[in-house]
Queue: 2 jobs
Job 1
Amino acid sequence: MNSPSLRLFTFAAPSRFYRLAGWMVPWFWAATLVLSVAGLYIGFFVAPTDATQGDAYRIIFIHVPAAWMSMLLYLVMAFWAGIGWAFNARLASMVARAIAPTGAMFTFLALWTGAIWGKPTWGAWWVWDARLTSELILLFLYLGYIALVNAIDDVRRADQAGALLALVGSINVPIIYFSVKWWNTLHQGATISMTAAPKMATTMLTAMLLMTFAFWAYAFAVVFTRTRAIVVEREAHADWVTELTRGKMHP
Amino acid sequence: MRDLFLAVLLRDLKLASRRRIDSLLPVVFFIVALSLFPLGVGPEPQMLRDIAPGIVWVCALLASMLSVGSLFAGDLADGSLEQLLLAPQPAIAVAAAKSAAHWLLTGLPLIVATPLVGLLFGMSGSALLALVAGLLLGTPILSLLGALGAALTLGLRSGGMLLILIVLPLTMPALIFGAGAVGNIEAGLDAGGHFSLLGALLLATALGAPPATAAALRISTE
Amino acid sequence: MNWGSASAFFEMGGYGLYVWGSYVVAAVLMAVEPVLVHWRHRRALRDVSRMNSGNEAES
């Protein structure tokens, strides 16, 4: 997903991508497994208990990676949707559509873990602090994109409309974050604000980074698989897809 | 380009003048929706005064979103939208004109109705002034973003709800700064920062939304 | 090592409900999502082969 676009043009043909992705997905799953085992081990068995928050802070190993992924995936989704629109590249639009549900999932997970973390630390199931509120709005942006592309029957129109919406959304994400932060600091007295994450011992930081990469590998695995499914759905009339299924039916 | 802009704007205004009742609906909704709050949360004056700026902004938002859904529907139905887009002038003029018409027909009446609402909620004079000033800057933003949403959801079955879902997140900064400005004034603080930010948002939206809306119109009518 | 015993591990210093509430939901989501995607992929391939066998039967 982050390789230079020139090289990617070789795999811009859905059939080539299908085969390449099929080869890569198991490796992504392997990476996910290794990284998450390493991250969780360090997070639970090496990183010490926090002085202020006790062991409740260990939620951070899910919460922060999920939040980072939710934001990264939105930008990546907008990027590929934009490429698909600008260059009329079907595959890029398919990748964008494949990213959305996973991005929404990570956003929800960040919100869920954020809320759960809030209960023991500040006594409430939800606090309207800047980051959580921005994350909530990000979830709305994801849902809006998914709803829009699903509501339009014409595939090409759906891809393009989705791209425009995603791009407008990504310009807005920093604005929204800034305005929510502003709003939050104004109400410092009234609401409880999220104190900075516990001072990171190196082990905590290591575990968090490992989990972030684990989530990243997971995202690649799931998004590539979903893209393959979308490719089959959309290119159903192509010869290579017919050959594909014939190969499966008559091994 | 200015000719096309004026032509579309004046046409929309004239069409609206022929259906005056329809044009008044957003304002009526605005007042009705606001009246629900005391019934729901109780008539205690101080609390109503506290929530007034926030709920006025939210109801203005909703009234805007509800009326913007049909911005292009009429023109799409009778084929005039296609003709407008075939014009040699850029579609940005059409998008801008439609947004301006929406603001004149929905935003401006809302602003005019706000002092009445302020009375109902017992707002102080300075707070009311801040509210009106904020709405003056903010309602055009709502019209501009609403037009983008309307263009994207043109002709779709679930259009209305979908439009609200996709546009509302984008309008949240305006809501935050607009309501926040009144809050500051009521607390005796300066609201200059809020108004500056709101003004900057308006500028950015006025420059960015019409081209995006024009692109969306082309996408939706191809 | 941080934990004296397995029960200490599950209790998480009293915060067990919160910590495991987070991890279990994460595990469930990240197990269900790949399965759903896999099903979608299989379904797509099945639909294509069904469509093609229909075409072949016609010709």
Job 2
Amino acid sequence: MKGLTQHALFWPATTLVLLLIVCASFNPSFLSLAWRDGHLYGNLVDILNRAAPLMVVSLGMTLVIAVRGLDISVGAVVAIAATVAALMIGGSFSASGNATSEHPLWLALGAALAVAAACGLWNGLLVVKAGMQPIVATLILMVAGRGIAQLLTGGQIITVYYPPFFALGNGYWLGVPVALWIALALWGMLHLALARTALGLFIRAIGGNPEAARVAGIRAASLTLCVYTFCSLAAGVAGLIISSNVKSADANNAGQLLELDAILAVTLGGTALTGGKFSLAGTVIGALIIQTLTSMIYSLGVPPEVNLVVKAALVFAVMLLQSPEFRGLVLRVARGAHS
Amino acid sequence: MNWRMNRRLLPLSITILLFISMAAFGAIRYDGFLSPQVFLNLLIDNAFLCVVAVGMTFVILSGGIDLSVGALIALTTMISAALLDAGWNPYVAMALVLVLGAAFGALQGLLIQQFQLAPFIVTLAGMFLARGCCYLISTESIPINDATYAAIAQARIPVGFDSSLTVGALIALAVVLAGMRVAHATEFGRTVYAIGGGESSARLMGLSVASTKVGVYLLSGFCSALGGVVMTFYMLSGYSLHAVGLELDAIAAVVIGGTLLSGGVGYVAGTLFGVLILGIIQTLIAFDGTLSSWWTKIVVGVLLLLFCLLQRLFEARTRKAA
């Protein structure tokens, strides 16, 4: 039992299960799954589907935080990637009913991801080469990035008329949402890369002590650069999913506050902000907690205004639980009550 | 010694120089730019930002960060509007929101200090909480019809040359002056610099690190509430979507003002010029008339980049010299 409570995933998983139990107790049909129109249907599927972009961004963020970094520009990168994709696809319905796109779909998606990766490379260079604090380095792109996205769109919402593109955010494959497949694939790939190769060890070493890692022969600089690039690339993927889901790109609002949700998901999952200790599965659970909370508030008929207050209370609670000082205080109080 | 002083003042002088050259550029390029009122408007339109940025300067000097300021401003406007709506005395309402703001900040500071939590996450949760409380009060904008508030909002204090300031702008100037005094001539100010320079050394020197750290966030919460009061004068309404993203503007103003985000180095006076530079960018874009508002973001981003690179250069030089 003790070993169980000390497992890194125990608290995040317990939180998620508790949330689901609360949902189910208020609404017994909450956990039910059905097969409709050739795909899975139900609140749980909905939560997984909606949480997919956040999962993707948070997975990238996990690695950045693991190397003692922080990337607050992911929301802006989402906007940029969505804008580039929407502008390049554009599309229109011809009289014959065949949709056409401005550029081939693969080219548009590739360009959007390439731009996103370039954003990450830029962040990484500022952190590694210029030696800036991560929060400042990514603040620059956070401020300017959204401006650039708005410049590209002229401040307008760009609508896409090209059904093949909509599959990313609305489609199903084998009955499961495509967005979820993308998130799962990314998680699987990362897990393999980090658990089956020395990469995970290197990242933990850099997060634990960057200088010691460098002296031990780990190419900390180039690895950190890769991590930032990957994080932005993940944000780009999320941008594609989001813009495909709403069939448009809104440079003003796409990915707004996503960086905060992503950092929150990572922290809820038990990854330490001080670096060196991370859990991909924890991050996925963290993203699910955030989305379950949102869905729960809507499905319980609670006014959505309460959402932010509940979220704040949850963050405070998790934060305190993770603090050794707080646990010590609670223990002391408990012992005092006994004696 | 003299040479060293100059060196420490270098980022501040660059900020001031940048402001002057931007003003000169505007004066040459656009008719009517070089009038006293245009410059006073910089202060009038950014008074709340200025007040908040002074509080943020102390937080950043101590090596922390406060993301809750924008949401706290919105909450202040909301509470003020709701209280006035309920028929409270305006001065009592003002005093109450200021106390609430300070208490909110102090609570965040206590969490950060007592439980060794990351300021980023604590104030992020504080931001959610403050915005959420706004929505709990009302999701709609609440107009303010109170006679005292309207009178203060419309008051113009003449300063000569056919130009005038608002009460909000005067408050902002007073906060900057008070901030400079606190930073450079009190024990609290010196301790803030010492914590930013190195927390454990500050503790070993016997400085009251714990209470100062809580005090810094208390101050920032108070400044946010005061900024909220100034914004209430400016907008004459309470709205949960007031000041969205203002925390970023405040951080940008502090950084452009020459304060190092790693803490320990910077001047409150620099922050005033940081705010003025953000303001003059918007004024230049407004005077131009053909540029869209998103250019503000891009220019601010570029300035942030330049200043951070400059700071790195400055730090590297200092390290070599030492």
